[in-house]
Write a structure and sequence with these properties.
2 helices, two-stranded antiparallel ribbon, 102 residues, 2 strands, mainly alpha
Length: 102
């Protein structure tokens, strides 16, 4: 709109009508795309938040008899890692968090 104030007074609207219409359509399309993107990102954020709440509420009991599935030693009071399939290992035995121990 600021560009319109820079035009000479002799310029008629019919001369710039196509330009103004295309510009407004482009801006409207960009805004719509950004609104859709924002909505998708908000939905993804909610899904991640729900997953985190779910996994934070899962508890496991490590007794003195529980052994590490990798080194076969007792977990005791050592730091440990828990895989989604309830496998418990010493924290230092957890080489790759994405690869489940066999």
């Amino acid at each position: 709109m600021q560009a319109l104030t820079l035009l000479p007074n002799t310029t008629s609207m019919s001369d710039i009508e196509d330009f103004v219409c295309k510009t407004l359509e482009t801006q409207s399309r960009k805004r719509h795309q950004l609104q859709v993107l924002k909505s998708l990102l908000v939905a993804e954020s909610y899904q991640i938040h729900e997953k985190r709440i779910y996994y934070d509420n899962i508890s496991c009991c490590v007794t003195e008899d529980r052994t590490c599935c990798v080194c076969k030693k007792k977990i005791g009071e050592s730091a440990f890692a828990r895989y989604p399939n309830d496998v418990i290992v010493h924290y230092f035995c957890c080489k790759d968090r994405r690869q489940l121990p066999t």
